Amino acid sequence: MKGAGKEFELKIYPPFGKSVQDGHTFGYFGGSVWADDVFRFLNKHCQTGSRITS
């Protein structure tokens, strides 16, 4: 994204769950961890005329 001149933020979250398999479900079950960051970024950088809320 940086090379393309696009806005981005790099976030590295701590391990999710208690197993490798749990980690693979972070996108689906980990919303309580990442949702605020994602929606804040989208609201800041995506001008849709309305705000996205979690």
Element-by-element helix/strand order? HHH
Number of strands: 0
Which class of secondary structure composition applies to the elements? mainly alpha
Tell me the β content: under 5%
Please provide a written account of the structure.
- The protein has 54 residues and is mostly helical.
- Helix content is 43%, strand content 0%.
- It has three helices and no strands.
- The chain has helices at residues 20-23, 26-29, 31-45.
- The longest helix is centred in the last third of the chain and has 15 residues, at 31-45.
- The chain is flat, with a radius of gyration of 14 Å.
- The mean pLDDT is 89.
Give the key terms.
54 residues; mainly alpha; 0% strand; flat
How are the SSEs placed, and which strands pair?
Layout: H1 20-23, H2 26-29, H3 31-45
Q: Could you give a quick summary of the protein structure above?
A:
The chain is mainly alpha-helical and 54 residues long.
